[in-house]
TrEMBL record:
Alphabetical list of Pfam families matching this protein: PAP2 (PF01569)
Cellular component terms (Gene Ontology): membrane
Chain segments annotated as transmembrane: 23-43, 71-94, 114-133, 208-231, 288-310, 316-334
Major localization listed first in the record, in broad terms: membrane
This protein's record includes keyword Metal-binding: no
GO biological process, one term: phospholipid metabolic process
Residue ranges annotated for the Phosphatidic acid phosphatase type 2/haloperoxidase domain, each copy included: 118-334
Family: Belongs to the PA-phosphatase related phosphoesterase family.
Comp. bias regions, Basic and acidic residues: 252-265, 382-393
The protein's name in its UniProt record: Phosphatidic acid phosphatase type 2/haloperoxidase domain-containing protein
Top-level division of the source organism's lineage: Eukaryota
Length: 415
């Protein structure tokens, strides 16, 4: 109980010293992500274009069967489930087994909270972008769904056809010659149903499910190192030593040396190890159960996407297009906030520096500088503490780059 109280107290102290400028920049990021989703929601309510269609078109003559995966279920699966799972992983498994036992609890919780925040920001960016792009394209294209004629209930009387015909050479519904009409021929007056009937391309279920589910898969792969084994690059001078033999055990492979090199052994002992790992022992395949866990969300995305085909809600091209949108936004949202899966050790990128929170300017390479994340006054105080021989372990809500403990937490070499 005392340790918990101390940890909470240290977090509160650190939050007080966190740069307000930096905090405001990330609040703005959240506002823009939510604003992007809000614009997508507004697009979904717009009465967009309604493409002309042929009354004899078999591709839009399927029955109206309803949805296997409703919008409510889609939101739970693509938004709520990834949000809960990524939060639990960030809180339960971060920072991992590589940190020293002496690491302060406050520092550990700072890392947990930061990883949680970036997990949700990446997910929010992926979903909001997919939603905005999909709904905007729906409004622009106005493509009829496969069951559009069932919803439209067109008036096929000769007078109505003559009034609403905009193309084609046909004059009667009984003729094989196409009759192209506009949507005003429909007798259905329900605004919502008619708007939805002309929203086939691209598939929103496909884009939204792939955005949420693929992001979750990438997140799981990153946190638990679910990746194809690979050989890290080595200098050309070491290639001959690396490939001595793939059948010998790693402790039984001495470096080749001639008599002239024996006199130099003491000089090269620090730069050249006594034994070399064979390539087969430099990496290994992760357990299959982790691979299954990581690919379950992808299977869910496939099912949701395909359900739009057998529900007669979308054409094949609509589903493929929506899936590609979701795949791209999921990858982009993940990489915007997280290191690459291969070599990233499961970490998210750190925060921007205080002086570069809103703007970088020409001549600077990235948004990380030497000023850190805390206020200028706090940095000055910490420098004074270091000069006086004191060590601060509370810090701000985000770790300081000069903290040796933080280096131990984030060093990829130890991960």
């Amino acid at each position: 109980m005392v340790a918990t109280t101390k940890t909470v107290s240290n977090l509160a102290v650190g939050a007080r010293y966190l740069s307000k400028r930096l905090l405001a920049s990330y609040i703005l990021d959240w506002v823009l992500i939510l604003g992007t989703a809000a614009v997508g929601g507004a697009f979904s309510k717009i009465d967009g274009a309604r493409h002309d269609f042929s009354l004899q078109d078999p591709s839009i003559s399927f029955p109206d069967h309803g949805d296997t995966v409703s919008v409510g279920v889609l939101i739970v699966v693509s938004v709520v489930a990834p949000g809960v799972i990524t939060a639990l992983i960030s809180l339960l498994f971060v920072p991992g087994p590589t940190i020293p036992h002496s690491t302060p609890k406050a520092l550990i919780w700072r890392r947990k909270i930061w990883e949680w925040n970036t997990a949700w920001m990446g997910l929010g960016l992926a979903l909001a972008a997919a939603f905005l792009i999909t709904e905007g394209l729906k409004d622009l294209s106005g493509k009829p769904r496969p069951h559009m004629l069932a919803v439209c209930n067109p008036d096929t009387s000769p007078a109505s056809i003559r009034q609403h015909q905009v193309g084609g050479l046909g004059t009667s519904i009984d003729s094989a010659v196409p009759i192209v009409v506009d949507w005003h021929i429909c007798r259905n007056t329900d605004v919502s149903q008619m708007r939805d009937a002309f929203a086939s391309w691209p598939s929103g279920h496909a884009s939204f499910s792939w955005a949420g589910m693929l992001y979750l898969s990438l997140f799981i792969c990153a946190k638990f190192a679910v990746q194809i084994p690979f050989l890290p690059p080595t200098p050309a001078s070491q290639d001959s030593r690396r490939y001595i033999s793939t059948f010998d055990e790693e402790n039984d492979i001495p470096h080749e040396e001639d008599h002239s090199s024996k006199n130099l052994r003491s000089d090269t002992s620090l730069s050249s190890p006594r034994h070399t790992h064979p390539p087969r022992n430099e990496a290994a395949a992760p357990p299959i159960y982790l691979l299954i866990i990581a690919f379950v969300p992808i299977g869910v995305a496939f099912f949701i996407s395909v359900s739009r085909w057998f529900d007669y809600r979308h054409h094949g091209f609509d589903i493929i297009s929506g899936s590609l949108i979701g795949i791209f936004t999921a990858w982009f949202g993940f990489r915007w906030y997280h290191l690459p899966i291969r070599g990233g050790s499961g970490w998210a990128w750190g925060a921007r520096s205080r002086g570069r929170a809103f703007w970088l300017g020409i001549g600077r390479a990235n948004y990380v500088g030497d000023e850190g994340w805390e206020t200028a006054g706090r940095n000055a105080q910490k420098r004074s503490d270091l000069e006086a021989g004191r060590r601060d372990v509370t810090g701000a809500g985000l770790p300081d780059r000069g903290d040796a403990t933080e280096t131990a937490v984030t060093n990829p070499a130890q991960s």
